[in-house]
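Cross-posted from the bioinformatics board.
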Amino acid sequence: MKTKLSLLALVSILGGPLSGAETNAPTNDWKPCPSNQAGKQYPQYNSEGRVKFRIVASEARSVGCTFRDSSEFSKGEDGAWYGYTRPLDEGFHYYAIKIDGAEVPDPNSRYFYGSSRWGSAVEIPARDRDFYALKNVPHGQLREVYYFSKSSDKTRHIYVYTPPDYDKDASQRYPVLYLQHGGGEDETGWGRQGHTGWIMDNLLAEGKSKPFIIVMENGGVSGPRPTNATPAGAGPGARGAFNFSAFEKVITEDLIPYIDANFRTLSDQPHRAMAGLSMGGMQTRSIAPAHLDKFSHIGVFSGGSIAVTNITDMAKFKEQVKLVFISYGSRELGTNRVGGRGFGGDPKENTAALKTAGVNAVFYESPDTAHEWLSWRRSLREFAPLLFKD
Amino acid sequence: MKTKLSLLALVSILGGPLSGAETNAPTNDWKPCPSNQAGKQYPQYNSEGRVKFRIVASEARSVGCTFRDSSEFSKGEDGAWYGYTRPLDEGFHYYAIKIDGAEVPDPNSRYFYGSSRWGSAVEIPARDRDFYALKNVPHGQLREVYYFSKSSDKTRHIYVYTPPDYDKDASQRYPVLYLQHGGGEDETGWGRQGHTGWIMDNLLAEGKSKPFIIVMENGGVSGPRPTNATPAGAGPGARGAFNFSAFEKVITEDLIPYIDANFRTLSDQPHRAMAGLSMGGMQTRSIAPAHLDKFSHIGVFSGGSIAVTNITDMAKFKEQVKLVFISYGSRELGTNRVGGRGFGGDPKENTAALKTAGVNAVFYESPDTAHEWLSWRRSLREFAPLLFKD
């Protein structure tokens, strides 16, 4: 808190990039965002990474958006309201439109589940967007699947990505990655805003990854509230949600048996991986090491790291774990935010120590991104080629 | 127009049901709608079929919704705005919220593609909702599939429903139904608001239908504009969109070969059906009869009918067409609206005449519904058991 205040004070004294940018007119090279609804010209992005909105609200007193440090919205010649953001990171950001005290989805954007609601998000095409682009390559399928979970006593909704050739050869069996979303998100996240299918299709077309099945569950299974309440503001998925035992039961007792019975999997430990982002990363480093008979590959994206001191039986760990992959957006590192230095130790140092201890541990830093989907799309791109290598 | 005015005048003089209902307080048995976002208490429905909204907009001058004849919205004790609709038909209805001249999605509802936009819709549980409920029965999969279409020179996005046992026995092959959405909707419609998967899962669990694959494409393929412009107000999908030749090419030249090459289909004419709702029904009765070498079963839901006089070779038609299924919501019949009496002749009479001519023609009337999804869910429930009977 002290650091933050000092930084703000410094920026204010020196006239930092933030306040400076707000007084200059934005660069006038706006283009419609790829996250818009079909045919919609707004929101638009420009080469600075700003996003400009157009909202029709003829009788409104004030219009705005939830991005901090945005310009004031004002009426244009056509009577619609216009406003724009500060320069944002490339990639994908959730937001809402504010109209006279209401916070509503932008009628021009497509909708995504995040921040614990279906609502708007905007995509600013990244320089390296090619790896998650829809191309004319062989495509896998994203399958919407319902199965009955005994431990949660309900029919649950999951997505399963099957690689392009899955239906071609009924004798081939595949490894499986269980891939989890973040807090306030759900099982739709990796398939929609994560572009999991297109990332895998492109990696496979380039021969960069082995084909495997990806299973996406909803990790927000409500479990018993921990006796020691989680500290407020402990990051996404807080509010006492950090007890993962109910989800642990679902994945190990219901989901894995269902997938192995209904898809052509290689169902042994060497061919099963778990990974997740943010809260999903915490779930992964909580659940996978506790079930080393089931998982051999572990991926934690912006969700902390695994310290050598947390591994009770290093010999067993090295024998059973084929990969520990830890990643972060560069802007998260060294901060006190989720997964930064203050969150279970410096993730880069922890991962280096794992490697020194003889674990196949890999650290990836996504350039110029924070706690956001571009970090996680890139993490999947880096993680997938390391899976199931023998 | 004349008829409408007279009816309105009459209602006004006699104090008809519409104006009467508006002066009485709505029945106070409100329950959250099943179409709400998880955890949202509003919108709510009551036993009269009214829907009540709650919108937080502290500084707004006026709030409302797009349902005609709704109550005025006013601020409740909690400072939020409340308002409710007239009694609506059971089932599914698109709407938007109005805030000071803006038309936006309701932040409390889930979102659907219809009326040519992603936006809000509300579900009022129907008395017969059991047939489209999610149950603990074997479930098929709804698969998101991309394929390259030469005729439209682009990668296209479709959904494919595969029945519950599809992955169990690699030797079994299945018939295929091509199922089209309405104007202003897209390939997501039948899977989301149509509940196609749950309807089929339930029919199959009860042994009421043969298992078959269902393919859902986007029928809004832009084709050459017809030289005679379509009359304005000709129904959903108007604006010159009634030339289906581009979509006809996509389905017959690209989609069917792709599906037959990539799914375990029975690829002969007796095992291929086409059906659609509204614009999709018009596409069906335009495309299927022109390709009787490809389609044997035809379903038209609220999209007109097939007159005996439109069939040039009745002997051939009777030989090749195993079923003509025509359906309507009861409130559509006898009106001048899409598919009503003024739209290619009375559909019930046309279908009876087909039957007299020796065609296996079936007419279904959905009770107490109009041009809306409950009519079409029921139509699928009635249509599916008649398909591929030998």
